[in-house]
Amino acid sequence: MSDKPATTKVSVTKIPLDTVVASLYEAQQKVYPRSIFGYFTKWRWVMVWITQIFFYGVPWLEWGQRQALLFDLNAKRFYIFKLVLYPQDLIYLTAILIISALSLFLFTAIAGRLWCGFTCPQTVYTEIFLWIESKVEGDRATRMRLDDAGFSSKKMFKKSTKHLLWITFALWTGFTFVGYFTPIRELFSEFVHLDVSPWEIFWVGFYGFATYGNAGFLREQVCKYMCPYARFQSAMFDDDTLMVTYNEARGEPRGGRSSKVDSKSLALGSCIDCSLCVQVCPTGIDIRDGLQYECINCGACADVCDNVMDKMGYERGLIKFSTQNAITKNWSRQQILQHVLRPRVLIYAAVIALLVSALAASLWFRTPFRVNIMRDRGVMARLTDDGKLENVYRLQIMNGTETAQHYSLHVSGIKDLEIESEDINQDEKAEHSLHNRSLLVNSAESRSVIVDLKIPDGILESGSHKIEFEITDLESGEKVEEKSVFLVPRD
């Protein structure tokens, strides 16, 4: 037996010095969108102004003595101008969300990612942050040179100024967002007097940080990798969906040339391969490669291509909003519009119209107060000292109006039924009948009262007897009826 320790042989493979190691992951290249002016760019900025005026302005509007649009989570009330919703009205908010989702599907079926290109908050805030960046650092070429340059006081000043403006705008955005859940005037006063709750500080900072990070740094990465809409949008496309499209038959073969040279003599298409369509794209794609999920249908490439076509003396529309069928079949604009009303679009539109009509009708006929009646489960029925049989109920009335309301209570179904409650006054308008009482509920509040119903003992057989509570708004005359039972125990 050998005393030498066991050894393990390790084979080493020598890698030639000229071997190139390829990475499976492509390094992310920063996108520097080029500024452009044109038809779609103007509309994109119109939507920026509309959405931001609404977002930053609406919380400051007042309706009566309160904020016009406020989701008051502490009070469990949603104020939407004249409308006041309670947690029990969640069905209305659900209907609004369903209508919004179906509308998104409808717009996508008609014109692709129209929402993404013109009204999505990510697109809107990225556009604003890019505008700030261009005003501070300069145009596309200047920004690229600045990023490639070494450290200097000039670079430090420009970068610091840009980020300071970004952070200020992002924090104001976070403050406005919180102002939809906390009365914004009170929130502003709290910040001025440094008396802000920790949760309010957290949410202002959180939403501000999200705006700063998404619009300032992530930008197109949110659209390409984080947003789920880009992944399932193709399921809503068909050959009649309007999308930003490159006319390959007209543009190819591409190649550079002078505007004075006839492209036909060079056997070239209309595309001069200037790459400006790539430079203006906010997601950094080449539209000439065909339909790509990264495309947000903003139309920037169509605007810059039309400008190039004008300079070259060519017909516009090499890149334009069109459909696959229109490109392959050379349809006119009129033919494209004729194919918009196809079954998919009609079904979406019909469902949306039905839901909107149902929601509008429900809100129109909605009773401005709610009633909930519960029996006292601790005491089913009992005899009082005056020899009467008593059942106890808890009555809850929610006043959904902006003014205090008087409500009349009437109970029917049993003869000689009496109503007693320390919280309910006898109703003068009801001629002092023992069957009618009234109570006051303040504006946008909920009031709970205990109601005792009594009958002379022995006038009813044992068992469950149906009764009906009728609550009437004495101002508007609207009524709510709720059914319950009066229990008579066995002897």
List the helices and strands and how they pair.
Blueprint (H helix, E strand, L loop, with lengths): L38 H19 L4 E2 L2 E2 L1 E4 L4 E4 L2 E3 L4 H22 L2 H5 L2 H17 L2 H9 L4 H26 L5 H9 L5 H21 L1 H7 L2 H4 L10 E4 L1 H4 L24 H4 L20 H13 L6 E4 L1 H6 L3 H6 L4 H22 L4 E7 L6 E2 L4 E12 L5 E8 L5 E3 L4 E2 L9 E6 L4 E11 L6 E11 L5 E10 L3
Antiparallel strand pairs: 1-2, 3-4, 4-5, 6-7, 8-10, 9-10, 10-15, 11-14, 11-16, 12-15, 13-14, 16-17
Helix pairs in contact: 1-4, 2-16, 4-6, 4-8, 6-8
Helix content: 25-40%
Identify low-pLDDT runs: 426-435
Rg estimate, integer Å: 35 Å
The major β-sheet equals: 5 strands, antiparallel
Molecular shape: elongated
Strand percentage lies at 15-25%
- Structural class assignment: alpha+beta
* Count of individual domains: 2
User: What is the residue-averaged pLDDT?
Assistant: 87
Distance between termini? 104 Å
Helix count equals: 16
Number of strands: 17
